[in-house]
Amino acid sequence: MSKEVQKTVVEKIGLHYPNWLVDVTGFSGDWLCDRFGVRSPVQHVPRLCFDLPGPQHVALALREIEPYQAVEFFEGEQPSSFDGIVCESSPDGDIIRNKGVSLRLPRSGTYARSVPGPFGGFVIGDGDWIGGSKLLGIDPPVTIQVTVHADGPAVAQWTVTYSAESSVLAELHVRWALGADTLVVQEDIYESSEAAYELYPSIPHLATAYHKGAGEHLSPLQPMEVPLVQSQPNALGGEALGHLGHISYFGQWTDSWVGFRTTNLPEFIGAFSGWSSQWQGRGYVRPRIVQDVSCGAFLRLPLMRGRRVWGLVVTSSSEIDDSGKTRHLLNRRKNQYADIPLSKQINWQLAGPTEDRTPHLFSNKDLQVFRAHIASDREVVAALEDFVQWANPEHVGFAPAAIWKNEETLLEQCKEPLLLFAESVFDATRDGGYDRIIIFNGREAKRRAYDFDALWSMGILTESEYLAVQRALLLLAYVFVDPDYCRFEDFWAEDDPPSEGVREAMKSEMGDSPVPPNFAAEFFTTTAVIADLFPGHPMHDEWTALCERLFVKFVDRWFEPDGTYLESVNYHCHALNILICQIYGACVSGRANFLENLRIRGSFEQFLRLRTPVISHNLPVSNKDKRILAADDLTRLSVLPADGNSGENGNEQEWGEQLSVGAAIYHQADPDLSGRLMDAWIESGKVVLGTEHPLLTLLTLRPNIKPVKRAVKSIHCKSLGVLSRAKHSDGSDVWALLRAGSATHHMDFDQGNIHLIAGGKLLLGDHGYHTHDDNGKRISGCSSFLHNVVTFSDSYLNSSGYTGLEEAPEPEVVALTDEFDYVAHRIINTNYRRIGEYPYNMLLPAPKTVHLRRTLFVKVGYLVIYDTFDECTEPTTYRLHPPKETIQVDSATFVTGNPANPDLRIRIVAPREPRVTENKQYGPLWSFAVTQEPALPYITVLQWLPGAAPLVTEFDESARTLRVQTAEIHDFISFPEIYSLDVPNLRRKTVEY
User: Among residues 568, 671, 581, which one has the least CA distance to residue 610?
Assistant: First the structure.
């Protein structure tokens, strides 16, 4: 008679789980064996927060699980001998010995002084005792109770309880599997205090803190020499170097792991955080890595109310790979224990059911009629025909073009990239777990999902190929909605419960979102698309409902009512395009109509507002780029502005796919908006294949939608600034972005920036996100000196920091009239940032500066910038970045372009004798700068009208009146007092000759 199977475990990801404690709750025996006769001890211990839900105690069986292994457990007999964990008594506290590593526990008792921490020390082999811990900040007496729940052979588990004045302060629950180098700690703090316990690795030798060694890219551990957090006063002393924490997307802005090592001892102690879903009071409970002269680096864990769950790795330095060629041990353990423990992934359903060969992300009609629509535009057809001649199957647009061409040889070539993508997802998961699955996986997954849906419905993929891709997509869906990976609540921290403290914790270090908001949209839109792709999957309804709630919450939080997005223009493009993937699937299924959301509709309108006049620009537009354009003339296009995180190497940003998709989906409901989007699509070069959703772009392309010309008018976009427009008698368009508003994510500390286009030319530009200096060295686009702003310091490396991270003011006055547009923007700066020297999120205290930038866009042909300072103790530098050489005409006049017929005239009215401190090409743009002593005003008049006579200017400082005169213009501008909210008065005289 065969034995009854007690438990079956199947590893599905391809991960190795050594020394793993398998949950076999319900089994009452002491030993299990598998069909190979391998016997495993079973122990019953109190359940910890990261165990599967169930009774108070959990049964654990020790077993090594190989990748993709299926193990069936049967009732077994105890072997004659088993080398397991042992626990020994000692005068200094119980000692747990585990396969060459020993740990000493503190002694139970009441301490009147020198209160020990939860770990008395470690020893590897026959070496010396290293490490230790102590409790600080609590007045004795303090009582410690150590309760050992299991002392082997398979697992040691114990609780250390701290009490004072009959009140329980904290409990640490520790679990340690036989042969494991990792102790797992659940730490519950019941009362907040200024106290902390400190864990230090070596006595008496100084230790060094190490970090990195994991994350998106391979890199070895590196000494934590530069503080990664802003130090705050602490009664316990020491300098804070970093955090061990878990807030949102795998603790991107915190050090999720840290190691300690000494130069003269071989041992290594490392800690990693994990189980974000289990952390409570996350904003308050943030262990610090501290540097102190007495003992070097150590970990300080504050007694702040809440729960933290973390792992402690004790091993020898020889086990640590410092080459950077493989994932660091701490990252591998974090993956194994905290990210994708076996108890989690065995419940993931990564296979089936196999859906029928019907598209789910778009309609059958889309697939049937899109070729006929495309055939109506010869330029689109020609671009696609050319593309399929040279395109590589790895190109993001290859599969959509092959589906359009509908030739078997091309369609067959689409399989391999899909299968390679599927394998890459599992490779990343096996390699680094949640620290390798990133937004780019989600970006590619949505794109591949559309290709996959079409190829399956067309009969191109076999069932085995279908299942291979399905597994990878479902894996990503499970990951992106896993609260151990991302807690979406952190992206709208104002809703954070006060007990969590996340908003307050993030204020000084991370602003109002732990990572840029578009990351959140990347995650939930990916899961939403995958849920639509597999409607028969058991998680479909749950995922769909969750992602629809997240969609609404995200749009309401990160979009203004008019559609303005609270990140850069680049990320507005990206965010809308990834939301479109979810929007379209919901529309096709009839489940939801997100197109009616005013913020979504407003986003399409916003891009029409941002659309510049047609200009000549230098972007290397080529059919060999990822984005395929169909227009005959690609030398003059309507583009989007470079600003902060938008654009590249001083060039404007090209359009994405949202124009033609928007034109199609709004065609019936709003023909006017549809036509204006189609007009923009034509003037921007006719994007046929983009990077976000190329197949959806082709399927919805309707070139025969009648274009509708836009109206030229200025508009204030709350949080972004003013988009000024003018049209001159010669027919030329003028467009300006007067940057003023609270949108700071990826806007890169550029308040007051001015972007100017006139006469079909870029006159004042922006370096953009990816930019390089004259030597080809990468420079950060978020540095303030790369924008058309005023900077405050004797060093150009000191970028503005305003009053906090991701905090910027709205303008005080905005006036849009027929004659001019006016913005008064008071910019308060109390911080610097040193990009390249310190992390992006570190703000350095700086002398307070209160800067009022008043910008007057006069539509007949000039722009006045009037900068004054209420408070300013540092020298100031006024910066402009034209794309062409700046040539000095006289002491206060400069021109760019051809001196005989310049593109832009720069007339510096104040200071009267400007001291030019920079006038050279820097990277892709010209860098022009004037510096003067603190608090002195700047007044500049920029003239753009082609062929116009030079301006004559005169400023009466006492009356705050500026005269601007040419052969055609004679204006008197009276500015209000500094603190007045009045709009300037412009009086215009007719000049007679």
Answer: 568
